[in-house]
Specification:
Elements lengths: L7 H27 L4 H54 L1
Helix pairs in contact: 1-2
Length: 93
């Protein structure tokens, strides 16, 4: 029985875009952490921390999804190859 799953390529594209967003928010957080401590900067730092955490969780979820889908593809490839070998042996008998 085959498992149904979304195609990997669109998910990989979402992962790439998510990685870019995650890196951008991480960079913003690092820059604000180095800025002088003022009330305005503290508020911006807290907002940047929240955005960073949100995008980090999203990126890690997408990375996990792509990893699982690639694992399924590999398992299906191995199963298909095994079926071909079994079918070929049956045809030789």
């Amino acid at each position: 029985m085959r498992h149904r799953y979304d195609p990997v390529v669109p998910c990989h594209n979402h992962l790439s875009f998510s990685r870019i967003e995650y890196d951008a928010y991480r960079t913003d957080l690092e820059l604000l952490a180095q800025a002088p401590r003022t009330d305005a900067n503290t508020a911006r730092l807290e907002e940047a921390q929240q955005n960073y955490e949100l995008h980090k969780v999203n990126f890690e979820k997408l990375r996990s999804d792509v990893s699982i889908k690639l694992k399924f593809l590999d398992e299906n490839r191995v199963n298909d190859f095994g079926c071909l070998l079994t079918y070929g042996q049956f045809m030789l008998c």
